[in-house]
Design goal:
single chain, 210 residues, alpha+beta, 8-stranded mixed β-sheet, two-stranded antiparallel ribbon, 4 helices, 25% helix
Length: 210
């Protein structure tokens, strides 16, 4: 496992071009606008009964996108976005904000990239922390089992306390993009999937999701 600060996998000579790329992301919708009118079925959790609501409301879409941009993440909801990709994010608006992305590479293996923002108990580097690794076959099997309940399910969004953190799982493959997000206390399925992503990334606070 390789931990590097400053999201520092980019050479200094490329910083200008990277800045241009991420500036363009700010002009690119992170999520399909249709999600603001498409109703999803949120499952029951410990704070709210099952309910129907738009997959994303406008304020959520804007806030989620801003948090992911802070982590130098690109939108996955683009037509023909590339290799199959899964991304789990815990968005808390501070030092506990973290995202873990896995992308299928040659041979069907999964490459993991995790990023989290600075924080005294989480990341000592003032610029943030990055982990990259190729998952072992056993790690990959564990992750695939954890996300299996979602890959056959339609997208949904859940109501919750306005100031609560959000667990967000995204899946992109070719022209297909789905998202599942819950606030406050996530369901067992979301918690199990999130714990698998965060533990495989070595995030120091992964066990808190249990």
């Amino acid at each position: 496992m390789n931990r590097l600060g400053a999201f520092g996998l980019i050479a200094a000579a490329l910083v200008g071009s990277v800045a241009t790329v991420y500036a363009s992301f700010r002009e690119t919708p992170f999520f399909p606008e249709s999600f603001q009118t498409t109703v999803g079925e949120c499952p029951k959790n410990r704070d709210f009964p099952a309910h129907r609501r738009p997959i994303l409301v406008r304020d959520e879409a804007s806030w989620f996108a801003g948090q992911l941009l802070d982590l130098h993440e690109a939108p996955l909801a683009q037509t023909g976005a590339g290799q199959p990709t899964l991304r789990f994010s815990m968005l808390n608006g501070g030092a506990r904000t973290v995202t873990v992305r896995v992308t299928e590479v040659k041979g069907g293996r999964l490459h993991l990239t995790a990023k989290w923002l600075p924080g005294s108990a989480v990341c000592a580097d003032k610029q943030g922390c990055v982990v990259e690794k190729l998952l072992s076959p056993s790690e990959q099997a564990r992750l695939e089992a954890a996300v299996a309940p979602f890959l056959a399910a339609p997208s949904y969004g859940c109501d919750g306390a306005v100031d609560a953190g959000v667990s967000v799982l995204e899946a992109s493959q070719g022209d297909t993009y789905r998202i599942w997000h819950q606030r406050s206390r996530p369901t067992d399925d979301v918690r199990a999937a999130g714990h698998a992503f965060l533990q495989l990334a070595g995030w120091p606070l992964a066990d808190e999701l249990r």
